[in-house]
Amino acid sequence: MCLSPSLGVAAAVAGLLSVGAALLAMPDASLLWAVVTLAALAGHALAASGTPRVRWSVAAGAGLFALVAAANLLWHRERVADAGEPLGSQAATRTYLVESLREGLDQQRLTAWGLALGVLLLSVAVPASPARGGRRGVVTTVLAVAVLVWCGLSVAATPGDPPLPELLLALQPALLAALVTAGVLASSGWRGDRRGLLTAGMVLLAVVAVRACADLASTWASWWAFVEPARDAFLQPGFMVSVGGSAGGALEVSSAVETAVALGGAGLAVAGVLRASRENARP
Are the C-beta atoms of 102 and 223 separated by less than 8 Å? Predict the structure, then answer.
């Protein structure tokens, strides 16, 4: 069908626009183009050839990613709208900071849940991929173990001294995302497309999952240190939280790289699963 390749090209173009907007410190535009990218990927999967189970599971995974990106876009716009409001007294400032951290935690948890469930939906189509095995499967298994070790080290490096049981409880969605992503990464070497697109995509999504663990752990530790009664005697002078964008004219290379990794991982994973399904259908 001609619709599927057209949507694939549209997803690639929108992804490049999203990365470019992130590089130019335009988070609103970057998130908007990310939604378009992921929605186009979902449409590309639905219009592609292959078994219905593969097409629908891949489309559902990409669609879930698009919904999470849309939620993050709405969250960002709300923060920008609230950024210009006066804070007033010290008590109001403290309340504002606590609420900002709480909203950040909610947003990061939502993103982690979306990543975990989206990858789970993609994994439904993996058994329909042709068997590969051998050395390639061993390599992806080793990579998956390395991802889990990396995730554990990032959590262990959490700043401050938060209680470990409460920290792990707060990190549940991010830890699940890392575990699911590592599992699909390991299986992609045993069953996947010939060109390794699925493996490449899962490597990138594993990086996103580990980063989600580290960011969520850091945010939760900051929130815990701020509200923990023994340490929360008063606000320290000069403590500031920025919720707006970066200064105009500055290039946000790190933000662009993060966007490229996330969208590239989703795109490669979708393309890899669809290609593997077609390869398996060939006589």
Answer: yes
